[in-house]
Amino acid sequence: MWRRFIERRSNWGIDPLTEREDAEKAAAAAKQAEKAAAVTFKEMAEQFLSMNEANWRNAKHRQQWRNTLNTYAYPIIGKMRVGDIETPHVLQILEPIWRSKSETAGRIRGRIEAILDAAKVREYRSGENPARWRGHLANLLPARPKLSRGHHKALPYDEVPALLSALRSHRAVSALALEFTVLTAARTGAVLGASWEEIDFKKRAWTIPAHRMKAGREHRVPLSDQAIRILRLAQKLGKTHVFPGLRGGAMSSMAMLMLLRRMQPGITVHGFRSSFRDWAAECTGYSHEVCEMALAHTIGNKAEAAYRRGDLFEKRRRLMDDWANYCDEGQATQAHVIPIRKAKG
Asked: Do 179 and 290 belong to one domain?
C-alpha cells in the first residue's frame, strides 16, 4: 500500500521523502526559534561564564565579570530576551557611567558584546551586535580618556633592609607574607595563591604552576634560608594556603598593601620587584638574563627564547641568597620575632 502511495505522490510531482525532510527541518527550525525566544540575557551570560571562566587564571577577573553584570547589566537587560536587545538598551546601561566610571563602562561594553556574540553563534539572536564599538557605539559615545597608570611606586633598595627589620615586629600573617614577597621578588598574586603542595623543603624550591603565572609557564623559585624560615613559621597555621586569610582560603590582596601603607605610605607591594631589580643591576655582577628570569619575565628576543631551554636555577639560587642576606643587613642568623598561634579549626 505504501509503495502505491509513493507512486501516486510521484505522479503528482511530489517526492514524499523530500517532503518529510522539509517538514522535519521546519519543525527543528520552529523548535530552535521557540528556544531562542525564551533565552534571557542573564541566562545567556551564565552560559557564557560557565564555558569560559575556567580558562581565566585570575579569580579577581572572574569575580569582576559577575559583579559588573550584576550591578549594571542585569537590572536593565537581565530579564530581556537576548534576541530583543538593541542599541538603546545598551546605551541605557553605559551612558550614566561613561564619563564618571569610564574604565568600568568600557569593560561592561566589551562583556555585553562578547555575550551577545555568543548568543548569535547559538542562533539565539540575529543581526548586528548593538554593543559593538567600532563603526557603531563609537559614533554615539565620546572616546574614553586614556589612563596614565605610571609605574608601581617602589622603595629604594637601600631602604629595604630597614623596612624588613621593622616589619618583623608586626604580629600578623600579612607581615610574613610581605617579607616572603620581598625575599622571593615574586608577584603578589603568586604569593597569595601559594599552597603547601607547591613547596619542596628538601629541594628548597617553590614551584608555581603555569595556570597561576602571568606568562602561562611554570616557574621555580629558589628559597633562601630566610624564606624557608618564614615558611616554617607559616606552617604552624595548619592551613592549605601558605598565607591564609582570617576567614579561611587565601589572604586578601589588600592585607599586605594596608600593612605597607601604615609602615611606608606611598609605595606598593609590587614595587619591591623594582627594588630587587635595581639592587641586582647596581650592586651585583649577575647577568641581565639571570636577573630577568628571577622575575619570571618573558624573553623578548624570539631567537634567544628558542635556543634557551634551562631556567638557570642554580645561578638564580645564588642571586636570591645574596638578596636575602642583603635584606638581612648581615643578620641572616637573627630569629624572626613574630609569634604565630595555630589557627583554630
From this structure: yes
